[in-house]
Write a structure and sequence with these properties.
alpha+beta; two-stranded antiparallel ribbon; three-stranded antiparallel beta sheet
Length: 80
């Protein structure tokens, strides 16, 4: 697996997260974000369960540009 780093949250106090990568072999987005709170989890569960092998994370709106870039990279990778 080859992960292409896209961006870290520029406002992260420790520079540790959230972070976005693209898996260049599958074009999947790999996202590190904040754990969600109980109220957010409850709201998410209204549309169905979250399986044990999955997670819901929160990524700040200021990362939208980085997400767009990651989507562009993923789309270009799929075209190869």
């Amino acid at each position: 697996m080859s992960l292409r780093f896209i961006a870290k949250d520029p406002n992260s106090p420790d520079g540790d997260s959230p972070t976005i990568w693209v898996d260049e072999s599958t074009s999947d987005l790999v996202i590190q974000g904040w754990k969600i709170d109980g109220n957010t989890e409850a709201a998410c569960l209204t549309t169905g369960d979250v399986p044990d092998h999955e997670a819901v994370v929160r990524v700040p709106a200021r990362m939208v540009q980085a997400l767009r870039k990651a989507c562009d990279v993923a789309e270009r990778s799929e075209d190869r």
